[in-house]
Amino acid sequence: MRLAAGLAGALALCAGGAAARVSPPSYALPSWSPDGKHLVFASASGARGAIVTAAAAGGPLRSLSRTGALSQVVWSPRGRRIAYGSRGKVFVIRNDGKQRHSVGNGVEAAWSPDGNGLAFVQSALGGPILSMEAAGTGRKRLTNGRFDHAPAWSPDGSRVAFARATTVGGVESIYLVGADGTGVRPLGPQGSAPSWSPDGRSLAFWQRNQEGVVLAVFTFADSQVRQVTRTFAAYSRAPRWSPDSSGLLVTICSEFGACRLDVAAADGSSVTRLGPGSD
Q1: How confident is the model at residue 2 (pLDDT cuts 50, 70, 90)?
Q2: Taking the CA of residue 109 as centre, how many other CA atoms within 13 Å lie in the half-sphere pointing to its CB?
Q3: What sign does the CA torsion over 85, 91, 92, 93 have?
Q4: Three-state DSSP class for 184?
Q5: Left if phi > 0, otherwise alpha if psi is -120 to 50, otherwise beta: which for 276?
Q6: Is the dihedral of CA 233, 256, 121, 145 positive or negative?
Q7: pTM surpassing 0.85?
């Protein structure tokens, strides 16, 4: 967990510099760069938000763009661009913070493996999952569910995993659909916010229990689900796999809404706290 230790130092440095402010920043929505050397995530302090990058080995945080409330931040597979959601729209920005542009209405954006397209949800309430080119053209519908959420592409680009409920705020289950919108089927487990491992062998997602939520991993080889963390009060968005499929970057939140970043080993052996905050 050398990588986790380095990033923990970077976040601690940032938090220390913010000690004089009334509200220290809260970190959420993390995403790895394709080479595993950097992370991008949301930083929020009060009503203000920003898209921030940091070296995974430690060092200062860099703000790319100031914005309002963020619903998603995700690095493109080729590393050149970052997509994020804010105020019901999907934006794309270069990894140096330049050339920001809106690609249209939507939330919960997810890059296709080739970096040329995005899958997203029609609205914050859910609804059909759609896909489009990164420029905002070529929209097509992948699902027809009224309460579908959290699309995640398979590494080979052939399928999209997502969570489906039958009512607003209802229990969600994991589903799969072909990238062309055909072959929708339930995977089996109850869960929310799926994330496909880079090696294509597993899906990570959040499962609810009576006390809160736990991070779980489904393995395709044996169709088994195993819990890899203890129960937390809440989470923010999907877990993010490390490029080597060994770890998961997660956002843990308290019942009062403050969030922090942790790294969970995919085999369930450890959880490393990266930033300040409680659960």
Answers
A1: very low
A2: 34
A3: negative
A4: coil
A5: beta
A6: positive
A7: no
> What's the per-residue H, E or C state across 144-178?
CCCCEEEEEECCCCCEEEEEECCCCCCCCEEEEEE
Name the DSSP letter for residue 44: E
Coil, strand or helix at 46: coil
Tokens of 222: 């044996």
Q: What is the pLDDT of residue 190?
A: 95
What lies within 8 Å, CB to CB, of 180 at 6+ separation is none
Task: Let me know: does 12 contact 275? Beta carbons within 8 Å.
Answer: yes
Cα(119)–Cα(194) distance, integer angstroms: 13
Count of beta carbons in the 10 Å neighbourhood of residue 23: 11
Summarised one tens digit per residue, pLDDT across range 209-229 is: 999 999 999 999 999 999 999
